[in-house]
Amino acid sequence: MVKYIGKRIAIGILTLFVLVLITFTMTKLMPGSPLQSKNVTGDVLAKMEEKYGLDKPVAEQFLIYCKNLLHGDLGTSYKKVGTDVTEIISNTMWPTIRLGLVTFVLVLVVGIPAGVAMARAKSNKIKGVWLSALTLGVSVPNFIVALLLLILFGVQLKLFPILGLDTPMHYVLPAIAQGLYPISAVARLTQSSYEEVMRQDYITMAKAKGISGKTVLVRHILKNAMLPVITYMGPMVAFLLTGSVVIENLYTIPGIGKEFVNAISNHDYTLVMGITIFIGAIIIICNLLADLICAIVDPRIRKSL
Amino acid sequence: MTEEALFRKLEAEEKNDEFIAVESQTFLQAAWKNFKSNKRALVGGIVLIVIVLLAIFGPMVAPYSYDEQNMALRNASPSADHWFGTDKMGRDIFVRILYGARISLLVGLVAAVVNLIIGTLYGGIAGYAGGKVDMVMMRIVDIIYSIPSMLYIVLIMLMFGASVGSIVLGISISCWIDMARIVRQEVKSLKEQEFTMAAFVLGASSKRILVKHLLLNAMGQIIVTVTLMVPQAIFTEAWLSFLGVGISAPQASWGTLAQDARSLIQVYPMQTVYPMLAICITIFAFNFVGEGLEKALDPKRKR
Question: Is the pTM of this model over 0.95?
């Protein structure tokens, strides 16, 4: 177990390092210096380059960047003069995290029971309808769902507020818009793994031993059927984080996704880099956690690596 | 009992009783039959063919070009001249959607080809080689996989500017990962089977075994993965353009069209609805076809 955890963490750190290397190289390869547009030349330019550390060789710049990164310092924003990237991130991440958590819970609470219900449905017709609904759920892009909900329930019917995240009511529309795809995916995953587990001999065995239906369901079926769903949680967090970019834009939520798009449009390289690394780190951590939970639940996985 | 009662001559219509009536089918014939009997997949396939034909020939016969402006006719309602009406610049929305289909399908096509070539080769080599090579190759894949593709695409677009080319390049970087994993898994399990051993014993070269025996057998899975990759790529492009960081007007991608019409959504909601419908229908059709193929090409399924 310890060996498994150690290996997983080592891979996680390596991944993060590669991400930092890629983002750093790309920002260095980008045309033009960030100071070019400031109308400065000669001594002033040299002074400014010295201030931002741009006069040193690239390798040294990378080392400095990594060193600062270890201290949690992601540099200064090129466009918002004097503001630290870390400060911008810590100011904007909370709305994103709150909305993400609400959606996460919504996905599990709706998706897993829906999948179980689908797997237990007796008639093939009902199953077909369920399947079509799920295909629809994974086919409609999140920005379209978000926009339709916005027009229908926000603008036309005025049932829900659509700007910001001030009250619980504000969460309803963005959480549904963001959650539709993962709900469908989780339901699908639950259904197929539930059916798979139902066919196993040990379920027949458990039933034959006279264990109550409820215990079989929870201890024998769900415990095994949930493994793929737990593994999916890592990618799901990635999906919610990248999805937040468009949702936050549509619902004017001052989160990290909205800041990311602004940074891209403003060509604020350090900020783009900082947010990229931040999002990447969260996703890597979530993947790691999902793997560890799986390894705790299922001893077979521990031995495979 | 007499001999006469035990043995009697066959009647004329009994002569063919031993004949097996089921026509023998090749794998592809059976798959095609299964696919045809799947209504959802068939409808998806027909819709896709219509979309492809419209995307190729539509703009050729259309009386307007995608960026032709007619200021006298802004935000017009649908009419015989302009089937879906015109946008805020007086451009024909139907023609712009046809051009959008070209961009979407192009992005999807490139993603599919890259997915097919890189993913199959990478996964095939990793699965076939096994051992240390496999370990290193799969760790690399893990690393690329755990960084969301949106981040690569955004970085590439900052580097090369927003265009169809940079979107395609960005999608290409990460779209082959799923394929590589699936092919590797498939090759690894096929490698253990007797026919591979037989081919090896007969002295077939590695290349021949890999291509003829392993990849051909994994073909079903590969085709399904490619089909399901296309809608993802189309979605990514539409999503980026909708955010305003992808393809920008006057070029007409579906995401751009929806983004363009967003400011007028309360007055002319239909202008946003058309491109969004186009995106949904296309993605839906691809997913249906993918599911149909998945069922039809699975050799372990009872037919």
Answer: no
The domain locations on chain A are 2-70, 92-304
ipTM of the complex: 0.73
Tokens matching residue A213: 């239906």
Among partner residues A15, A144, A242, which is closest to B148 by beta-carbon distance? A242
Residues of B in contact with A18 (CB under 8 A): 143, 147
Domains of chain B: 38-58+84-301 (1.10.3720.10)
Count of alpha carbons within 13 angstroms of residue A11, beta-carbon side:
24
Instruction: Choose the closest CB to A26 out of B150, B155, B245.
Output: B155
Please tell me the distance from the alpha carbon of residue A284 to that of residue A12, in angstroms, as a whole number.
Answer: 6
- Superfamily of domain A92-304 in the CATH hierarchy: MetI-like (1.10.3720.10)
Cβ atoms A118, A191 nearer than 8 A: yes
Structure tokens that stand for A66 in this block? 């990594």
Phi-psi region of B74 (alpha: psi -120 to 50; beta: other; left: phi over 0): beta
Nearest CA distance, A212 vs chain B (angstrom): 33
Q: Which residues pair with B86 in a beta bridge?
A: B92
Both structure tokens of B126 = 């990793």
| Per-residue pLDDT tens digits for B26-84 | 777 777 887 778 778 888 889 989 988 888 887 777 777 777 677 667 766 777 676 77
Whether the Cβ atoms of residue B179 and residue B161 lie closer than 8 Å to each other: no
CB contact under 8 A, A139 and B280: yes
CA distances to A229, A275, B78, B126 from B69, rounded to whole Å, are: 51, 40, 16, 53
Q: In chain B, which residue's Cα lies nearest the Cα of A145?
A: B276
Task: List, in sequence order, every residue forming a beta bridge with A84; answer none if it has no partner.
Answer: A76
Give the list of residues 6+ apart from residue A142 with CB closer than 8 angstroms, or none. Answer: A177, A178, A180, A181, A243, A246, A247, B239
Q: Rounded to an integer, what distance in angstroms lies between the CA atom of residue B163 and that of residue B248?
A: 8
